[in-house]
């Protein structure tokens, strides 16, 4: 019986992983769009103030089970990956 | 004009962050449920084989802009946070 339940939960987990993947890539595209506008404005892409605002807003909505510390940590990793992606893409543009 | 577009994109980003937060916490709950079943079965919670399968399945569906390496890295952080959460909760149970 529990094997059946386990298989079902794992299926749900796999689906959830793919939903997360979709959102992460959507987020990366959005950050790229924002970066392009900021570039045109001649503004620096990395904005620690805005990053802090985003993290505060996220944590304010956190209902767990992840604690606020973990949520901040995970989102910082996501933010950093998005910024790294922009830097990588900019490098490629410069090399062309 | 671009200020208006920027404000709109940032609003979308804030919404996307909250959707991500919801999914991350849903995922943590699901992993907890799976952990409880495995505990009853007397099976170890950390299963490197299953983790590898999940990562392979995720990367197979990755259409970018994040590259596979970044996707693996981000999901490993998420997996680790979920496992840490279970360990923390188990400790609390043992202390009660």
Q: First CA to last CA of chain A: what distance?
A: 59 Å
Number of helices of chain A: 3
Which outline of chain A best applies? flat
Look at the helices and sheets of chain A and give the structural class: mainly alpha
Average pLDDT level of chain A: 92
Taking pLDDT < 50 over at least 5 consecutive residues as the criterion, the unreliable ranges of chain A are none
What oligomeric state do the depicted chains represent? homodimer
DSSP, total strands of chain A: 0
List the chains of the largest interface with their residue counts: A-B, 51 and 51 residues
How large, in whole angstroms, is the Cα Rg of chain A? 18 Å
Biggest sheet features of chain A: none
* Series of H and E elements of chain A: HHH
Helix content estimate of chain A: over 70%
Description:
The structure is a homodimer of 96-residue chains. Chain A is flat. In chain A, helix 1 packs across helix 3 and helix 2 (48-60) runs antiparallel to helix 3. Chain A is mostly helical and 96 residues long. In chain A, 84% of the residues lie in helices and 0% in strands.
